[in-house]
Input
Amino acid sequence: MATTPSSAQVVVIGAGITGNSLSYHLAELGWTDIVQLDKGPLPNPGGSTGHASNFIFPVDHSREIADITRDSVRQYKEMGVFTESGGIEVARTEARMEELRRRMSSARAWGIDSRMVTPEEVHELVPYLDPSVIIGGFYTPSVGVVDSVRAGTIMRERAIDKGALTVVPNAEVTGLTVENGAITGVQTTQGDITAETVVIACGVWSPKVARMAGARIPLTPAVHQMISVGPIPILAERPGEISYPIIRDMDTFCYERQTGSDMEVGSYGHRAILHEPEEIPSLDQAKLSPTEMPFTSDDFDPQLEQALELMPQILGDESAEIRYAINGLLSLTVDGVAALGETPEVKGLWSAAAVWIKEGPGTGRAVAELMTRGWSEIDISNSDIARFYEHQLTREQVRLRTDESFIKTYGIVHPSEQFLSGRDLRLPPMYAAEKELGAVFFEAAGWERPQWYASNEGLLGEYGDAVMPRENEWDSRWWSPIINAEHLAMRERAALVDLTAFCIFDITGPRAMEAVQGIIVAQADVPIGKVIYTPVLDTNAGFRSDLTVMRLAHDHYRVVTGGAHGMADKKWFADHLPPDGSAQLTDLTSAWTTVGLWGPRAVDIIGSLTDDDISKESLKFSNCREIELGNLPVLASRISYVGEFGWEFYTPVGYGAALWNRLHEAGRPHGLVPAGIGVYATTGRLEKGYRAYGPELDAERSLFEVGMERKKLKAADFVGKAAYEKQAAGPVETVLCMLTVDDHTSASGIKRYMLGGEPILAADGSALTDGHGRHPYVTTAGSAPSLGKHLLMAFLPPDQAVVGNRLSVSYMEELYPVTVATTDATSPFDPDNNRLRGRV
Amino acid sequence: MTNVLVCIKRVPDSSEAVTLTPDGRAVDGRYSGYTMSPHEECAIEIAASVAGATGGTVTVLTLGTDEAEEQLRYALSVGAKDAILIEGDPDDFGPRDVADAIAEAIRTREADGTPVDLVLVGNDAADTGDFQVGIRLAHLLGRPVCAGIKQVEVDGDVAVMTGDGPEGTEVYEVALPAVATILEGGVEPRYPSITGRMKARKAPVARVTPSGSPRGTGRVVLTVPAPPPSEVTVLGTGAAAAPAVVAMLKELGVTR
Amino acid sequence: MTLVLVEIEAGQVNLVSEEAVTFARSLGPELGEPLHALVLGPVDDAVQADCARLGVDVVYRATNPELERYAAAAWASALDQATTVSGATVIVASGSPRGTEVLAHLAARRDVPMAANVVSVTSAKPLHVSRQVVGGAALEEMDLSGPLGLFSVAGHAVEAVAADSPGDAVVTDIEADLTPDDLRAQLTRISVRESVDTGTLTKARVVVAGGRGAGSSEGFGDVEALAARLGGAVGASRVVTSLGWRPHHEQVGQTGSRITPDLYIACGISGAIQHWAGCASSKTILAINTDADAPMMTKADYAVVGDMHEVLPAILEELDKA
Output
C-alpha cells in the first residue's frame, strides 16, 4: 500500500542483505533519490537472506573475498548485529589437515588471528564434540553470527532518515524498459518508475529480472540443506543465541551451528540440486518462503549419520527433535564468484547478485562506490559481471559448472584445479596437432589450451634435475616437470606457443587515436607499426588492466589482452569511446589466432619460411608488420612475455592450423619444441620479472608500487592521470619484489614448493606489515629453471625491500628461508634483455 | 499388548495459494512440498503412546506411489516400527477403494499371525477431505469405530476414546479390535530425532499390491476459486487508527 | 426426492441443519421434492414446527430408546431404514461432525459413494456436485451419480431461510431395528466442559483472535481484554495452538472451529486459506497486521496497519474514553 514514486535517480531491486546495503551506501555517497523495491513484505521478503545461517568465517583463500568479508564484519559490528562465537574447521583426514594448514597461510596473509588446534583443544572449546572423530582443527576466534535481516532494516532506516530512500515492498518487477541500449525505467505491480540507473540485487531471481532487459546474470538457484535440532539442554543452559564455536566438519561438508537451544546442521555434501529462477514459487505458493523449498530428506540422511558421529551426545538425544528442515535456495554462479557491476548489455543496468551474507555489506559498499565514482576501495574486479564470455552466460554452462562445483563449497580445491564439465567448447585451430602431441589441456576463457605436452617427456632425461621435480603430491598436482623441460628447451633452442586464448579487439575510426590515447597510460600517438605495452588505469590510478596495443593504421588500433580478463577490458574500452561513434570497437577474439615463436633458434626457423626481412634490424622490438609466411598472411609482432627473441604471429583463425604446422615442421631440424602455458604464463615470465594482471596488478596497486612508474608521463590526458600524478607526490607504501627460496627442505625431509598465496614473514617468523597495513604474501610462485631457483613475487614493506634481505615464507605451517632478489622490474634472468634484443 | 496400525496419506503441504497440475485433476505440491495431515501426525503420536503403554507395536500404512515412502519414513522416525506401502496411484482410489485396500492388507497381516488391535486413521484427508475411509474400513472389518477422536487410552481389551461433542468432551469405551478416526489437538505430535530418523532409514517397508481394481474417486476436475477483489477499508496505521476502529465498532453495535 | 438428516441442539433444529435443509430444498422439483427429514434426537412440537417452517414434508422420528445415547452406527441404521421407507434417492446431512459421521456410516452400509462438504449441485442428472477440498482452498466437481446420492453440505454454503410455503412436517415413526454391532461404539459419558469452550467461540457475536503476531502466550493479554470488553470470545490461529500459546478449542479454521460472528477481529494473523475457511462467514472482519499485504488484510472488510501490541491498547483506551 506504499506509494510508488514515478521516477528515481536509482532503483534498487531487492531488499535482501545486498540491496539493503546498496541503498544505504548509495545514500551515504550522496545519492538523494533512491527507490528500493521488493516483491515480498518487509523485513523478510522471502529471499535467501531470510533463511541464511548467518555465520561468518573470515578466512578465505581469495583476498578479494577476505577483504570484502572483513569490511562486512566491520559494518555488522558497527550496527550492533554481530555476535562473536569463534569457529573451528575440523579435519577427519590428513589431506584436510594440509588444507587447514593452507587456511593458516591465508589467515596469516590476510592478518586474521587463527590457529591450528588439537582434537583435545577442540573438545575443550566444544565439549559436546567427540574428539576421537577428528585429527585436528583450524580455530578462528573472530568467527561470528549476524542478524542479517535486522542489519537490512537498520541500513534501510538510515537511508530513509537521510531522506534519500523510498522503500516499496510487495512490488514485483514486471518489466524493464531499455531505450538505445540504456535502461530507462522499471515496471512493477505497484506502478512504473522512470530511472536511468537500476540495480538488480534480488539474489536467486536476478537472472529472471535481468532477462526482462535482455541482460544476463549467469547464476542458478541451488539448494543448501539445513535442519534445526532441539531442544538441547547443554545449549539451552547458556543464555543468548550462540555461546559455542561454530563447527565446520569439512570432510563431511557439514556445519553445526548453535541457535539458542537448537543445533543447526547444514550441508554442502548432498548432490547439486539446481532450480530455475522462473520456477521459484511465489510467496503464496510456498509453504514457508519462496526460497525455503520442501526438504528432501533422502539427500540429507547420510549427513545426519556423520553429524551424529561428531556430536553423539547432543544429536543422539532422543528428545532433541528435528524441528525445522529446509532446502534453502542460494545463488551459485558459473565460476563461483559474484556478479557485480554494470551489465555489458545495458547501460545503467547494474548487477549485485550471488552475494553471501558474509559479503553483503562490503559488497554493497564496493558496488555503491563503483556506481558513484568508478572505483571501489576494495577491488572487486574478480566479480566483475563483464568478465563472462558468451558460453558462460548460457543456462547449460551455468548448470554444468555449478553441478560440478557445489561439492567444492567445503572441498579441498587446488589453486590450479580445472573443471571437467563444460569443456571442449572453444578449440584452437591447431587443436588436432596439439592433441597429437599429447597436449594436457587447461581451460582459459573457454578455450582448450595446452599447459604442457606429453610428447616432450623425452626432454626430462635430457635435462635431469634441472627440471626441478616435485616430490610432494599437492605441490605437483596439476603440474608437470615437463613444463620446466619445455622452458629449458625454449631458452636453449626455441618454443612454439599457442596463444589463441588472447582476447583481441580493434579500435577504428577517425578518432581512434584520441580514444585510445584517453584510455591507456602509454603514448598512443605512435608511428604505424608500433606495439605499445601499457597499463590501463581507473580514475583512482589503480590497475584496470595491462595489455598491448598495435597501431595498424592511422585510424586503426588492435588491442590484445589476456583471455581471463578480456571481456572486462573490452567493456572498459567500449565505455570510454566517444559517444558520437567516431571510434568503434570490433571484437576479433574468435576471428584471429596467435602463435608465439621464441628462442635463440627462432630466427633460423622463420628464415626457412619467409622471404620477408624480419631480421632484428628490420623489425625492431616492439614493432609489428604484416608478412608472408609462404602463402600465409601473418601479422608479426616482435614482443615477448618470456624474454626471448621472437614474435607473436597473428593470423585469421582459418589459417591457424597451417601456421602452426608449418612453424612446427620448419622448427624440427632446429630442435623446436611446443611449449604450454606453464612456460608462457609462469616460468618464462617469472624469470623476467613480468607482472601479471590479477596476481600483481590490481586496482589497489599503483604503478609506483609495482615498479612500473613512467619515466616520462605523456602530455595527453588519460583515465587516472590526475590520480597518478597525486600518487607520484606521495610515499610508496609497498614494493613489489622478487624473492628466491633458499632451502626447500621441510621437517620431514621432503622438498616443498610454494604455489602462491603463502605469507612472507621475517626470518624469525614474525609478521611484516606494509604502509597499507597489509601483510606480504606470495602473489605468484613458480620455477625458474634457467636460474635453478623457485621464485616468489610479493609486495614487501619498503624497509624490507632490500636486495639480499633474508626473510621467510610459511608453507603448510613450516618456515622456509627466502632472499629478496629484486625490488623493481629488473629481470632475475638476463637482466640486460640481451636475449630479447637478439644479442644471444 | 496393543498393536496399532496408523493409516496416513502423502498430501501436498499447505500454502496460501494452491497449485494445480496442468490437467486440473490434482493438487501439485512441487512448491509447497508433501506432508501428512496434522490429524495423522496426532494419530501416530497416540499410537506410539498406546503401544508404548501396552508393549505393542506401531505399524504405519499408506496407499501411494514410491514417493509416499517419504511419509512412511517420517512416521517410522517418530514411533512406528514397520511400514506397509500399498502400491497404487491415490488419484485413482476413492474412499471405498482405499478402505478396501487397507482392509485387505489388515486381513493379510492378521492371517500371517500379527493381530491388528487398533486402527487409527486421520479424521479426513487434507487434500480430498472425504471423511469416510475410517468408517468404511470399520464396516469392512466388522469392527466398531469412533470418529473425531483426540485421545485414546487402552485398558485391557477396551479402548477409551475421547473427543469433543456438541455438549462437552465425549468418552467412548470400545472393545478392541476397533477403529478410530483421529482429530488433531488432543496430543502434541513429536518431531523426529536424528536417531529416530536413522532408525527409520533402516526400518522395513513391506510393499503390497491391492487385488481388486479401484472403482475411482468420481473426481471430474479441480478448480481454485479466484479470490474476491479486495474491498478492504483501511482505518489507519498504528495506534492512531483507534478512534476510527471504535467508530466502526459503534456502527456495528458491538460496543457495550 | 431427498431425505435430510436433521440435528437438534437445545431442543431446536441447529443452524447447520437448517442450512442443509435449505440446501436440499433448493434442489427443486427434480431432486429435492418432496423433502423428508430424519431427526437425530427427540422430536417435539418445537422441532416439528422448525421442520415445517423449513419446508419439510415428512419428519421421521426414530423411536428406539437405545438411540438416546449417541452411537453413529445406530443412527446410520435408522437413517438406512428411513431411506428405504422414504424411497429417497438423495440423502443430505450437514457438514457437522455428527452429520458427516452418520452419513459416512450409511455410505459404508450401502457401499455407495459419498461427497463431503458440498457447496452446490452442478448437475441434477447425472448428479454432479461441487465440494470443498484442500481445506476449502479448492473446489472439486465430483460425479455422484448412482442409485443413491449421499452428500454433506459445507458449513455456510447457503444461508438458512424458511420455505416460502411451510411443509406439512408429518411425523412418521420408524422403529430403527438395531443389532448389537450398531451399539458397539456408543457414547459412554460426557464430561461437561469449562465455561470457555468451542461452544462459546461458535456462538459468540464477537470473536477477537490472535495469530503469530501475538508473539507469545503472554501476548494474548490485549486480545483477552478486548474480547472481554466487547463481550466476545477469544480465538486463535493454528500456529498459535500448535505452539501451545492457546488451547486447541480456541482454534479458528479448517481443523478448528468455523465461526459466524457479527464481527471477527484478527490480530497478527496472516490469514492462510485454512484459517480463512474458519472465519470467512463472519459478517464483518477487522484485520490488524504489520503487513498491509497479508491475505487477512486484503480479504477483510476493515484493516489497521500496525503492530497489534500498539493498536489493541489504543482501541481499549479509546473504548474507555467513549
Remarks:
- Chain C has a mean pLDDT of 90.
- Chain C has eleven helices and 16 strands.
- The CA atoms of residues 214 and 220 of chain C lie 6 Å apart.
